[in-house]
Automatic annotation (TrEMBL):
Matching Gene3D superfamilies: 3.30.300.30, N-terminal domain of ligase-like
Stored SUPFAM superfamilies: Acetyl-CoA synthetase-like
Gene: paaK3
CDD domains: PaaK (cd05913)
Keyword entries, A-Z: Ligase, Nucleotide-binding
Name under which the protein is recorded: Phenylacetate-coenzyme A ligase
Organism: Acetobacterium woodii (strain ATCC 29683 / DSM 1030 / JCM 2381 / KCTC 1655 / WB1)
EC number: 6.2.1.30
Superkingdom of this protein's organism: Bacteria
Amino acid sequence: MKIWSDKEKLSREEIRKIQFKRLKKTLNHVYENVPYYHEKFTAAGVKPVDIRTLEDLRLLPLTTKEDLRQTYPFGLFAVPKNKIVRYHASSGTTGKPTVVGYTKNDLKVWREVIARIATMGGVTNQDTAQITFGFGLFTGAFGLQQGLEKVGAGVIPMSSGNTQKQIMIMQDFQTTTLIGTPSYALHLAETATEMGIDPKTELFLKYGLFGGEGSTEEMRAKLNEAWGIISTENYGMSELIGPGVSGECQAFKGMHINEDHFIAEIIDPNTLEVLPEGSVGELIITPITKEALPLIRYRTKDITKLDTTPCDCGRTTARMAKITGRTDDMLIIGGVNVFPSQIEGVLLGIKGIGSNYQIRVMKKGYLDRIEIDVEVINQDLLLSVTLLDQLYKEIESKLHTILGIHAGIHLVEPKSLARSEGKAKRVIDMRS
Ligand SMILES: [Zn+2]
């Protein structure tokens, strides 16, 4: 398996050396050019010169999405507007979006890190890659497009939606690589089957590069089975660069972080203390080569753990485990902490039900109540009271034994739940 860059094979010592050098440069850059950071550092009683080792990074204050909101639109930019060559923004579900900018060099870095994760996933210049992320203000599609082109793959910028046409193009252009969210990839497979096309034998997919939403091993198994592909997961966030922060190699032991561009830490989300390697906590990322928007110790809200032990693929960069949840989507049901991804893990492990589901959380009197709509996999099942009852009991008891929650289960007809063309909305919390 090819490794795109020698930077992915450096010794731990060399990686740390590069990280420290670039961190110092970034700290000076924000201290001098971003008044907001200058004040924040001053309030915390720390100057860039106080950072003498990589570990000293923890002396610096954390940055949150709230900081970006408060400085909307360009308050955290570290370069003048004439150096910005691209803008993106994330959705603002409440109020204003979060705006990010790129210099020419930032775009170059973006292409590079995408080329690396595409290579990890198996993509070469022999491949044709269909991008089903939306081209627009979101960061996903453009970064992937340019990085894949850097690898030499032929890019089909389909954008999101138009599912039947996606299938037609996949067939006619002989697409070998599918880029999108895991939930949309499953929806595509379902649609192909409905159109009378077997996704495994009548289409040409070899690889799936998935991201944009969390996924589980059970989801991967479903995707690989439905399409006959090798699927890898990758991780990113528009505030940090977009996709390209980390990607999975084919040893499937976590996502390799592009550590010469990003420093990762894990903190306890409650005490904000840095945790030792291997501990589960919130991922904090500091980009160390960004010019336009270098955020310092950005709180991703994603829960994971880090591993720097050698990987079978030959890369030496640290790996982050699959995201097991977000600090802000953790559900507390009757005092039990549950992540929607854990519920998904249980559901996808049960035969007879589909991969689409919806979680509703509500109050019944003073008590939390969780209800889950689950699609059965075929119509016949709905006709047998015995089978339905068995299935119902199996789901209920597994959720209780594995996660410790009592959930109301509603088995619904195949394909009756809404399909998403981007990130799936799995949870509706009606308590607030
Ligand atoms: Zn690896």
